[in-house]
Amino acid sequence: MILAVDVEPTSGTSRFRLMIRDGDQLIGEYERTGEKDIERKKAELAATADYLVELFHKHGPFVVRWDGAQRIKAVKDEFGNKIGEISKEHWRKPSWQNG
After folding, report:
1. Contact 3/49 with Cβ under 8 angstroms?
2. Does 99 reside within a domain?
3. What tens digit of pLDDT does each residue of 57-98 get?
């Protein structure tokens, strides 16, 4: 499955949010990021597209956020409840580790 990703600036010009669309329907938001990591996070999203669509159909709109305490990428519903997580096998190397 291929999902569309709209990159939208958040506060200031250096942070962006990745809005996930299935066709013309907004299904969620991936982690907020800096410009250098947009393509990496799009690749992570593409690797987990089927899983994210499945979560959307079960739970509705979601957000994916880094949980530093548990060291996971948690998928949360609109109420903040954890409904899933992005497995480490789908993570890509951050830009700060590439150089």
Report:
1. yes
2. no
3. 999 999 999 999 999 999 999 999 999 999 988 887 766 565
Identity of residue 45: L
Number of domains, the chain:
1
Q: What residue numbers bound the domain in which 27 lies?
A: 4-94
Per-residue model confidence (pLDDT) at position 5? 96
Residue 21 lies in a domain: yes
Tell whether 81 is covered by a domain: yes
pLDDT of residue 73: 95
Q: In b/e form, how buried is each residue of 8-23, taking b as 16+ CB within 10 angstroms? A: eeeeeeeebebebebe
Question: What token pair was written down for 6?
Answer: 């709209």
For residue 89, give the amino acid letter.
Answer: E
For residue 32, is it within any domain?
yes
